[in-house]
């Protein structure tokens, strides 16, 4: 049986009505395509929680800044469809920009505070674009459950807040970060890396773990450990570090100790490629 390929809202609504009439529990896995095992792990997880899994592939222009990589972002529609079919997704929704944002489009979804710091401070408007498209997809599909990866941890928390605040009737589930054997977090943007840059990128997760260990063993306070982590990344060859910070795992507020679950997060550039990663730091 082939995978359903839906390209417009009318066909999406028609299919959702069929699943609803059949009493099917639907899981949504939103993606920007260029799929890797991290995305597919969310599909596998979703299959355990629902009767049917619908993935979306949409490179969302509203979450890219004017100097960012929207035009060169990796795209492989045919390969993505094949991967989703092999992973067991029931369907894939592939809207165009015009389908998602018909003119005139004037609404923006903004989550205060959670989306203003970290990536939000360095990519103005990024989370507005994320929240707007995710809110639209959730309302178009009306899934019972939706899956997002922990690699984009701030994004995950922002989406959870949006869903709570807007009373969107969906359960948000998180999938663990999938990594290469070296520890490098899988990302579609890894395709940009040269062989030399990849070797440097593989150090990011190692530095996070060393900084976390120093904090937990009280060999450094939080500020010193984060400063050390930032300097380490620069010494290893990253050209710019946007942040290296310990935050409360739920609120993303800055923390000075690990008296409750926390998250150590970083974002840094290799050439023109911006990489992010994070790890749990628990008491």
List the helices and strands and how they pair.
Blueprint: E1 4-6, H1 9-21, E2 26-31, H2 37-47, E3 52-57, H3 77-87, E4 91-93, H4 97-100, H5 119-122, H6 126-141, E5 145-149, H7 153-165, E6 171-175, H8 195-201, H9 203-216, H10 222-236, E7 240-248, E8 262-270, E9 273-281
Main features:
single chain; Pantoate--beta-alanine Ligase, Chain: A,domain 2; Rossmann fold; 6-stranded parallel sheet; 3-stranded antiparallel sheet; 283 residues; alpha/beta
Brief account:
By secondary structure, the protein is of the alpha/beta class.
Structural account:
By secondary structure, this protein is of the alpha/beta class. It contains ten helices and nine strands. It has helices spanning 9-21, 37-47, 77-87, 97-100, 119-122, 126-141, 153-165, 195-201, 203-216, 222-236, and strands at 4-6, 26-31, 52-57, 91-93, 145-149, 171-175, 240-248, 262-270, 273-281. The strands form two sheets. It has a six-stranded parallel sheet, with helices on both faces. A three-stranded antiparallel sheet has the order 7-8-9, with helices on one face. The longest helix is centred in the middle third of the chain and has 16 residues, at 126-141.
């Amino acid at each position: 049986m082939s995978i359903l390929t839906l390209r417009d809202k009318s066909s999406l609504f028609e299919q959702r009505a069929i699943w609803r009439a059949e009493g099917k529990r639907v899981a949504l896995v939103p993606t920007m395509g260029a799929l890797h095992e991290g995305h597919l792990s969310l599909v596998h997880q979703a299959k355990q929680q629902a009767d049917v899994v619908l993935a979306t592939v949409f490179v969302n222009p509203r979450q890219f800044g004017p100097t960012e990589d929207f035009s060169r972002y990796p795209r492989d529609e045919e390969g993505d469809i094949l991967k989703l079919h092999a992973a067991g997704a029931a369907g894939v929704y592939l809207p165009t920009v015009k389908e998602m944002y018909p003119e005139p489009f004037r609404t923006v979804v903004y989550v205060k505070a959670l989306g203003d710091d970290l990536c939000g401070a360095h990519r103005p408007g990024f989370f507005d674009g994320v929240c707007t498209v995710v809110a639209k997809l959730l309302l178009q599909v009306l899934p019972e459950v939706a899956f997002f990866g922990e690699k984009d941890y701030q994004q995950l928390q922002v989406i959870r807040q949006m869903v709570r605040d807007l009373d969107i009737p969906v359960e948000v589930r998180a999938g663990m970060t999938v990594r290469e054997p070296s520890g490098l977090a899988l990302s579609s943007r890894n395709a940009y890396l040269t062989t030399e840059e990849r070797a440097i990128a593989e150090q990011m997760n190692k530095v996070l773990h060393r900084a976390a260990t120093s904090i937990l063993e009280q060999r450094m306070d939080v500020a010193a450990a984060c400063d050390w982590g930032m300097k380490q990344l620069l010494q290893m060859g990253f050209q710019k570090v946007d942040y290296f910070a310990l935050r409360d795992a739920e609120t993303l507020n800055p923390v000075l100790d690990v008296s409750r679950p926390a998250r150590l997060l970083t974002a840094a550039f290799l050439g023109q490629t911006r990489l992010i990663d994070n790890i749990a730091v628990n008491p």
